[in-house]
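The aim of this short unit is practical: by the end, you should be able to scan a pair of folded records and say something sensible about each. We start with the first protein, listed as its amino acid sequence and then its structure tokens.
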Amino acid sequence: MTELLQRFTSLARTAAKARDMRDRQPPELRTGGRAGTTTVYYLTPHLDEPSGGVRVLYRHVDVLNAAGIPAAVVHARRNFRCTWFENDTRVVSADEVVLGPDDVLVVPEYYAAGFARLPADVPLVVFNQGAYHAFDTVDPDPGRPGAPYSQLPQLVGMLAVSQDNRALIDLTRPGVPVHVCRPVVDGAIFHPGTTAPDRRLGYVVARRPLEARLLEHVLYAQHVDWPVVRIQGVPEAEVGALMRGCAVFVSLSDLDGFGMPPAEAMASGCFVVGYAGGGGEELFDPTWSEQVTSFRGLADAVLRATRRPLDELAAHGRRASEHVLAYYTADGLRTDLETAFAGLVR
């Protein structure tokens, strides 16, 4: 019976991996359009469920269009548009687009396994939102250093979402211009409440699930009576409301490109404790948060936080919010994008 279960599990994993690899293949894109004004096309997975990475792609297109640079999201599926957040983003389907020699194709690292299918005669920019996972589908090969990027002669630049990830990209693909385009934290959704947050502790259910479970065991064993708010699969507006109600937020970031949950929690006025996860290093300042590097450190830091006065936690949260909402803005992203595309847009 055990052997049969193991075989079934193995087959299920193989099938899931095959489906994932199919999803990561970019659609066929036609070329041959006439030269002229540049349009920047962002190839985007058609996921109609909360995905921070997809939200960022839509935002880039909105910001570029607002800056006078024509841009559009490209989905493989006709008439598809993400509906889990409000948007009026310009969206087209792959079969509607004919790429011209002056256009720019922006492709997320999600499609790394299918980079070879991308048109070779259109300038390519790879938008890497998760440098630590960019090679998940690419086997290391000493005969192909820098793969898959080194096999893309049309690659003219790369975008990253944090200084940490730019440094990692430089290690794996030296010589390609890499521009950091800051994430945007929406202050209309993520902001402190009008009253002090409650004695609640929140985290986003996405990373380090075993540590999250173990942390709750520690809290109950230490008789911490704070309700735990597990945030998962809800619209942005609800995420913001849940975070505003938490005095402490636990960051479970793990090899992330940036780490939006701790940034959004800081913007919402939470005192944030936890892992920076690589890309979030720039967020954690000891004057308003506490960064850890191990589970034991996490448990101790969370216990300390729950023993602090609520007004003290709220004061730290307000400082964090002021910093995040002043820097991670749409205006800042516009400046970053204009710099990144300055030599590519006509």
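Turning to the second protein, read its sequence before its tokens, just as you did above.
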Amino acid sequence: MREFSQSEAMLARAEKTIPLGSQTFSKSRTQYPFGASPYFITKGKGAKVWDVDGNEYVDFISSLCAVTLGYNDPDVTRAVRDQLEDGVIFSLPHPVEMEVAELIVEMVPCAEKVRFGKNGSDATAGAIRVSRAFTGRDRVAVCGYHGWQDWYIGSTARNLGVPQATRDLTHGFTFNDAESLQELMRAYPGEFAAIILEPMNVTPPTADFLHQVQDIARANGAVLVFDETITGFRFANGGAQEYFGVTPDLATFGKGLANGYPVSALAGRADIMKLMEEVFFSFTFGGETLSLAAAKATIEKLRREPVTATLRTRGTKLMNGAGNLIARHSLQDVLSISGDPTWSFLNFKDVEPYTLWDIKTLFMQETQARGFLTFGTHNMSYAHGDAEIAALMAAYDEIFAIIRSAIDQRNLMDLLRCKPLEPLFKVR
């Protein structure tokens, strides 16, 4: 039995000064069942992390997809240490800003000019602002998760504090349903500044969906934005736009761009990006050199080594293994697996008398007890090798048997050593 006493004590301490005890919603106690979970990590190396109680885990969350190479990658760490000797921030731009922008332009199909932020929400908000400036329009069509800022989050259940006037300008459409987007265009003709979507998340796009979205954007004079905060530098070196062969007008990047260092990018057509000279998108730390040195080292490694191909090969092995285990344990009524091999998902379903949250709690309790961090996602990194995948499959074999028996015997609640998770805000 793993011990989490230090984590729980530290959480109680942190909540006295930090709402939820975490700076990130997805890392908070809302996502991890209390009594069966760690809450603080002290270090990471490769595919492994260690919590404050000294427990070791193979981490398939990979810092919410931000780590693509592995924790403390030696090439990235070396680049950051070298840059640290020269300085972190200056009164004028450092050449590394230009060097990373040039690498992105070389690698990403849509990229002609680039601006940097610190997180994905910076980049998506910048994309919407410059799209509104370029088109002279206000409305935005969205599909997927696009960050915490008012223009997007106001359209979700987490809209507390967002003015109604802002909320009214954002309209959702359904992935793989081009007609749902056409309906928005017909309802507000000539009013949409941008159509922004994640080119893929839980399910792949149909063969023609992204092309249909591109055609609708062009026909209606809207800027097409791919939010590649996760898919960029993960699905392929040039992102999902390279992988699926559809080039947007603008794209946003973050997460894996710098293997966990805080930097994001907005890239796209030169005529649109030219307006960034007038649109106010400016950060004191936008040119912070350690993160840009990390980005440069990361991109260079992506070009030098078969990183994205390896993520895909090993992720395919994981998805096939998990699918076979679901079938072996007759859990098709409870679990399915979907997504891209580089970023896949176990999908939980309600099965009487249990909710998906009850079942997911048992799953997380048992995976964490066996030394794995995952809340049902498999966010592959270059450091995840065949051994880590085999170990996860062995754990899933045991855990899936427990889940099947618990549902059949109707004793799931008796097996829990913690309170079940509660229904949460879903970002996708």
